[in-house]
Amino acid sequence: MSRLSIESYLTSHTGTKIPQLGFGAVFGDAYFGSVEAALKAGYRHFDTAQLYGNEAELASALSTLLPRLNIPRSAIFITTKYNPPEPVEEPGPSVEEVLAQIQKSREIFVPTLEYVDLLLLHQPRPGPQGRARAWEAIVKAKEEGWVKEIGVSNLSIKMLEQLPSPLPAVNQIEVQPWYPQRELVRYCQAKGIAIVAFCPLVRSEPKRMNNPVALEIAKKHGKDVGQVLLRWSLQYGISPIPASKNPKRVASNADLFDFELDGGDMEKLDGLDAGAEGACSVKAHAMINGP
Q1: pTM score > 0.90 for this model?
Q2: What are the positions of the active site (predicted)?
């Protein structure tokens, strides 16, 4: 295993380099301060989405902070996501309608940040036809030039195989020791589809953060359970995107590179796999197992 650092990245089958440690969605008044803390801690990968309603806040924070901190735009990797409407039946919105919705993200990011590094299809609804239409629109957005790379979120192996070409560069899914989705992760990694993991800190659920196995490993390395969980993701070649409003926690979540989980640690964490019951996002689990 190559030595991991805050500058480590994943490379998709397209050659796109994605900073491995990402910063997830934060909401409310603390957003600007959280982004500032993340930049100072070394994060360079920032995740947002139309669904979250915080694209404008991220664009504003980055456009203000990058020059202040002397960080070039080229060092930053911004991910956003197109969110299909709900409820809707097949075949869903037309390609033109999807593209019009995607343009709202362009209006937010391009004026000050020039481009979006990665655009994802956020949800797999309403079904194969709808996904194909949405994917065609996302491909068109990339062809326009302001989107550099494209991918998907919450898609199963079956859904990926149904999707028209080109092959997505990324699949963003829930991955953590209690819900590792091993078959899907192996499939994607074998094809060069980078895995970005939401809920890598299991939403700080007390029962899991106080799990005896995780606590034992954390104590062994002089770390906290959150750091152990994030390190587990990194060592599996996954890009976790933890989020926090607390600047100290933001920095702590990036303090992952002065220790390494050994084979025994990884095996113990792998043993926490609870299958479907281990998912933090019941909705995401339902989507990824949908039509």
Answers
A1: yes
A2: 52 (proton donor)
Q: Annotated binding site, which residues? A: 122
Say if CB 177 and CB 270 are below 8 A apart: yes
From CA 175, how far away is CA 75, in angstroms rounded? 26
* Phi, psi for residue 120 in degrees, rounded to 5: -115, 150
DSSP for residue 29: T
**Terminal-to-terminal C-alpha distance of the chain:** 37
Superfamily name and number for 9-288:
NADP-dependent oxidoreductase domain (3.20.20.100)
**Residue 52 appears among annotated catalytic residues:** yes
Catalytic residue, from 43, 52, 179, 236: name it.
52
Binding site for substrate: what residues are annotated?
122
